[in-house]
Amino acid sequence: MMETWFYEVVTIDGDYANLRRTDIESDELKLVARALLPPEITEGSRLKYEMMQYEMCE
User: Fold this and answer.
1) E strands of the chain, at which residues?
2) End-to-end CA distance of the chain
């Protein structure tokens, strides 16, 4: 079964970004290496995580 999660980029700090899930109620941040994220992200970008990959939401 393929699961999908949605995130918002809260902060970008050098080679890492802090993401917050938006598909559930959560205050936790997830620290993710920028190398795993789309290069065009900015703070406030919305991402979809599916099949072990992040992509920009439309």
Assistant:
1) 4-13, 16-21, 29-33, 46-50, 53-56
2) 24
* Per-residue pLDDT tens digits of the chain, which is 58 residues long: 679 999 999 999 999 999 999 999 999 999 999 999 999 999 999 999 999 999 999 7
Distance from CA of residue 31 to its chain's centroid?
9
Pick the CATH number of 4-56 from 2.40.50, 1.20.1260, 3.90.550, 3.30.1360: 2.40.50
